[in-house]
Write a structure and sequence with these properties.
heterodimer; A: about 260 residues; alpha/beta; four-stranded antiparallel β-sheet; 9 helices; about 30% strand; B: about 325 residues; mainly alpha; ABC transporter involved in vitamin B12 uptake, BtuC; 15 helices; about 75% helix; transmembrane (chain B)
């Protein structure tokens, strides 16, 4: 089943074209890494799929056009983790995670047992139960990021869009995050995460979409997308490509000499 | 004790305090009336002096204090939550300044002397004009920052026009009347004022109170809230028009009363775990408490001098706000 279908998508911000004719289909059960240099259009692509930026082209979620959905309806199908991690008020961590459940609750109804379980599970997955009662504004950057990811997980939507979820996390929590996303894909959901760490993307994603200057330049399994030539032409870096434990390893080594061989 | 229980306790405490201060306000005044007599007189239809004092003077004053305080507290909490800014307050949208201008024009032109409701009606017209201009300038897609900037511009223009009216005032008495009205007061208001303001205030409360859940989601920012099913255009519409209706009506009958809408949400935020949706009812009750207490105090401090309510709230509110800033500066930065 196709969870997300994007056809001929273009978007402009302040007169500048950010996305040009982007098309891809996303079946259920995939963990997609959205990669590309700064300004390639990764964040704009995620925001456009949600309908947060004006665009041309078609975006359909589970066969229905996003434009025809109400905000509440859309929220039941897609969860989104913005890059912005600003928390306005010193509210307890648990309340933030519980916000993910509000989407499913009719107005004035209370949290049910099922909601509680999903909230607890999301907090366990991101290892934030230890500070569930602490004000979220007092946490460190990485802890805050994990709380916000737990919030998105608690929304329990078939599709999760995450904008640089791994930024600011320590290595063990980065791997934990990647494993969580891979596990979500294993449960039949799909995750699209924009990533800057090519090593993480290569090891854990089932598929990579490489954006450059607003266009998709490669789309497929990590091994076929991350080639030496592409890293050179898109990122302008020379990289070591290897393998460890049956999974690819990517390590950027140096700036590529653009005029060289 | 669970979170929800503590919240209910806070609300019950604030509700009790509001009730207490409401009765205290009813008991305060130059006419010395015993407690039992006064309560009895509230419901008597004998039409004697005590009944008149209670029903025609003190009751409308206490009701207006309650309603205006709740309006300021509620709208302050909503605006701070919507704009995600602890410095937001009801006057920000330009509604108060424009309602003032409407009232000043009514006094200046003599329209207010034509019939008793001339002044509040002109003030309401001023509030309506302000919100239409702000909303038209900001547009539905414009967002919070555009609303703030348009509000500041409208406020400044209304203040300048008010100053112009004072400047050109034909006689010193009109100027004095304008000055006194602008200071904000609840004295000499009648049930007619209550009936004029109540429908607008209640309509505004309903709009503002419906925003609780959206404001919770907005804790994480506009994009996150939108992805959680919050229709940001609807939120803007309800916040702007709810504030305009309730604060416009409050200003129309009582003048500008500052600092309540700014300070009360700050005072109560720690008591409700900073949760925006819980802050709304708490802040409404807290605003009512503060205004009823202040209106009782102006009558106790200087019974002969007609100390203005708006003056007292500013004198007490501003230093208190400074102290709050000093105390919380670390957590705010």
């Amino acid at each position: 089943m196709t969870l997300l279908s994007v056809k001929a998508l273009s978007a402009s911000l302040a007169g500048k074209e950010i996305l040009k004719d982007v098309s891809f289909d996303l079946p259920a059960g995939e963990f997609v890494g959205l990669i590309g240099p700064n300004g390639a259009g990764k964040s704009t692509l995620l925001r456009t799929v949600l309908g947060l930026t004006p665009h041309r082209g078609e975006v359909a979620i589970e066969g229905r056009a996003v434009a025809s959905m109400s905000a509440r309806e859309r929220a039941r199908h897609v969860a989104y983790l913005p890059q912005e991690r600003d928390i306005a008020w010193p509210v307890p961590v648990e309340m933030i995670v519980a916000l993910g459940r509000d989407v499913h609750r009719p107005v004035f109804s209370r949290q049910g047992v099922a909601d509680r379980e999903i909230i607890d599970r999301a907090m366990r997955r991101m290892e934030v139960e230890a500070f569930r009662d602490r004000p979220a504004t007092e946490l460190s950057g990485g802890e805050k990021a994990r709380v916000l990811i737990a919030r998105a997980l608690a929304q329990d939507a078939p599709l999760l869009l995450a904008d640089e979820p791994a930024a600011g996390l320590d290595p063990s929590h980065q791997i934990m995050l990647m494993k969580t996303f891979a596990a979500l894909a294993g449960e039949g959901r799909s995750v699209v995460a924009s990533l800057h760490d090519l090593g993480l993307a290569a090891r854990w994603c089932s598929r990579l979409i490489l954006l450059d200057k607003g266009r998709i330049v490669a789309d497929g399994p990590p091994q076929t997308v991350l080639t030496r030539e592409r890293l050179r032409s898109v990122y302008a870096v020379d990289a070591h490509l290897g393998e460890a434990g049956g999974k690819p390893v990517v390590m950027p080594l140096d700036l590529a000499d653009r005029n060289g061989p | 004790m669970t979170d929800a229980m503590r919240f209910r306790l806070v609300l019950a405490g604030l509700g009790l305090l509001t009730l207490l201060l409401f009765f205290l306000s009813l008991m305060t005044g130059p006419a010395a009336v015993a407690f039992g007599d006064s309560l009895h007189a509230l419901f008597s239809d004998k039409g004697d002096t005590v009944a008149l004092v209670m029903q025609e003077i003190r009751l409308p004053r206490a009701i207006l204090g309650l309603m205006i305080g709740a309006t300021l507290g509620l709208s302050g909490a909503v605006l701070q939550g919507w704009l995600r800014n602890p410095l937001a307050e009801p006057a920000l949208l330009g509604v108060s300044a424009s309602a003032s201008l409407g009232a000043v024009i009514a006094i200046y032109t003599g329209f207010s002397a034509l019939f008793p409701l001339g002044l509040p009606l002109a003030a309401l017209a001023g509030a309506v004009a302000a919100v239409l201009v702000v909303q038209a300038m900001a547009g539905l897609r414009g967002g919070a920052l555009a609303v703030i900037l348009a509000g500041i511009a409208v406020s400044s223009l209304a203040s300048a026009m008010t100053a112009l009216a004072l400047n050109l005032s034909p006689n010193p008495f009109a100027a004095l009347e304008i000055m006194f009205w602008m200071l904000g007061s609840l004295s000499d208001r009648s049930m007619t004022h209550v009936w004029l303001a109540a429908p607008f205030m209640v309509a505004g409360w309903v709009m503002l109170a419906s925003l609780g859940r959206a404001l919770d989601a907005l804790t994480l920012g506009g994009d996150a809230a939108a992805s959680m099913g919050v229709d940001m255009r609807r939120v803007q519409f309800l916040a702007v028009f709810g504030t305009a209706a309730s604060v416009g009506a409050a200003t129309a009958v009582a003048g500008v009363i500052g600092f309540v809408g700014l300070v009360v949400p700050h005072m109560l935020r720690p008591l409700v775990g900073a949760r925006p949706s819980r802050l709304l009812p708490a802040s409404a009750l807290g605003g009512a408490c503060v205004l009823l207490a202040a209106d009782t105090l102006v009558r106790l401090i200087a019974p002969e001098r007609d100390l203005k309510l708006g003056v007292l709230t500013a004198i007490v509110g501003a230093p208190f706000f400074l102290w709050l800033v000093y105390k919380t500066r670390r957590s705010m930065l």
